[in-house]
Design a protein that fits this description.
Length: 322
């Protein structure tokens, strides 16, 4: 069993190493599920087989020592050398391969349940949500806000809140569901969303905006036009680049419900199909979003982002956000 455990850990290290250097994409939810099942198997084997076997061996040592001492006492020998306590502890001790499997099961199970049904951490990899979220922000996502979903397959089993305009949502990227994206909910099912000449309108009504002083992006070392946008009754900041044209070119992968969008030199107008959402980044001219790759299905929703719990480059960013 020790050789098998070593082989499993070697395979895990190889998989994680290839994932880290980008040789292949990984599915952390699936990996955590497999680790939970594997350590549970070791935990059961420990409780039902290995531990009873060690207890029986320890009991045999004690019984043999008791028998030996009794025989010596009958011969008049009362001072007997030897202490079986150390031997008993050595026999009862878990081998390393059970320490690192069965011993980790409760921890891995707790992480799996917490991450699957309550809160999941994410790291912001790009600047598409600047200024709301910065590169390097470590955020928490509420996994049950939009309903309880089965881990790995992401199937909803319990309804909760519906997404609202203005929510910051994590979802599985429609082009590649193994990748998680984060954007802001702009259009709900049935909405007509227009983004023309960098002005957002929903169902024919322009979305309220108010100008702010220009925003300096430390990553790109450039200034961008900054505004307050009011969506869903809540305010958030957006950025636009006056040097970028208003039109967008849809990706070839945008096939499903492609006919729901009309593109022209000014931008795009889309009607959101049932069970789908139109998503956009707050950094409007530096975000690949629903304008390019289409709508997000309800089945792709992961959860609602709500809190920055750490940014090692700027601790002042820690806190809740809209």
């Amino acid at each position: 069993m020790s050789a098998l455990t070593g082989l499993l850990y070697g395979a895990l290290a190889f998989y994680l190493g290839g994932w880290y250097i980008g040789s292949w994409s990984g599915n952390f939810s699936l990996l955590l599920f497999i680790l939970t099942l594997a350590t549970f198997g070791y935990w059961l084997a420990e409780r039902l087989h290995f531990m009873p076997k060690r207890v029986a061996a320890a009991s045999a040592i004690e019984a043999h020592d008791t028998q030996r001492r009794g025989e010596l006492q009958r011969q008049g020998i009362n001072q007997v050398d030897g202490n079986v306590a150390a031997a008993r502890e050595q026999v009862l001790a878990q081998p390393w391969w059970l320490d690192w499997t069965a011993g980790l099961f409760p921890v891995i199970l707790a992480v799996f349940l917490l991450r699957s049904f309550l809160f999941e951490p994410f790291k912001i990899p790009s600047g598409s949500m600047i200024p709301t979220l910065a590169i390097g922000d470590l955020i928490l996502v509420n996994k049950f806000h939009y309903g309880v979903r089965l881990p790995v397959i992401n199937k909803k089993i319990v309804d909760n809140n519906d997404p609202k305009r203005g929510d910051v949502m994590v979802f599985r990227y429609p082009v590649d569901p193994s990748i998680d994206y984060i954007k802001r909910v702009i259009g709900l099912p049935g909405d007509e969303v227009a983004y023309l000449n960098k002005q957002l309108s929903i169902n024919g009504q322009p979305v309220e905006t108010r100008p702010l002083p220009d925003f300096y992006d430390e990553d790109s070392l450039r200034y961008a036009q900054q505004s307050i946008e009011v969506l869903g009754g809540k305010e958030h900041r957006i950025l636009t680049d006056k040097d970028r044209p208003g039109f967008v070119i849809p990706m070839p992968q945008f096939q499903k419900h492609r006919d729901n969008c009309r593109y022209n030199a000014e931008g795009v107008v889309c009607t959101v199909p049932p069970g789908h959402y139109f998503m956009m980044g707050d950094n409007r001219d530096n975000s690949q979003d629903s304008r390019f790759w289409g709508f997000v299905s309800d089945k792709n929703i992961v959860g609602k982002a709500f809190f920055v719990w750490m940014n090692f480059g700027n601790l002042e960013r820690i806190g809740a956000f809209h």
